[in-house]
Amino acid sequence: MRIYVHSKGRAGLRKGTLEALEPLKDMTTIVCPIDQFNSYQEAHPGFNFAPVPIHWNLPEVQQGIVEFAHKQTHKKIIMMDDDLRFAHRIAWDPIKLATQDTNTLINMISGLDRVLNNVAHATISPRQGNNRADHIISNVGSARSVLAFRTDILKKHNIRFDRVPSKSDYDATLQLLRLGYHNTILWNYTHDQTGGPTLPGGCTESRTADVHQRASEALAALHPGFIKVVVKEKAAWTNTGGKRHDVVVYWKKAYQSSTPQSVPPLIRSKL
Hints:
The chain has 271 residues and is α/β, with parallel strands linked by helices.
């Protein structure tokens, strides 16, 4: 299992994914623009690095990660955003969440590694709504920010991330679901953003209102019947004027349209 963290303009970010992954830096590769390579090396000694062209957008970076990992014979990979914090459920009080520690990260990575023995793609749940869930595993649903994949299956079916200007995580998940590969979502771990949606650097500046609209419309064209384009408003989206085009995705409908190629889906695994 290899971890790839894609990052841009955040070499000095002290609260985020790379801080959390410090104990696992020997198995973590930081993917950054080549013109920022030196600053990342200085800020995060001991990590592995893979510089990419400065003009690549995130979908192109993710596609580059998959191709690099496949060449390196990394059969299982996790791609992570750089601005994440993690937590886990407390066994004796499952509606509460404990903040991250080294064991949380090790157990989370191990859990995703085990899951990928049986499925093509997996993720952990977002923090929002996690402590209201009555299960620890579910199948067929959204995946973002923490994306675990089997590279052999991605290459077998030529699953690509660079078909859309943004929302490539949704596109890759839908490609696999429509082929019959359900994903698995672990709910005993969670993630959310450390700095919110307007943290400087990363994709914040490049994901303009126009990019969101083009990405949403491209996704709907690639997956007709499984995507609804909507306009959403949120005050925190200051870089798009508080409004942007987004999508409603019918994950289960997409999977049910396929002939399953992986193990039958577990609807819920109760606590």
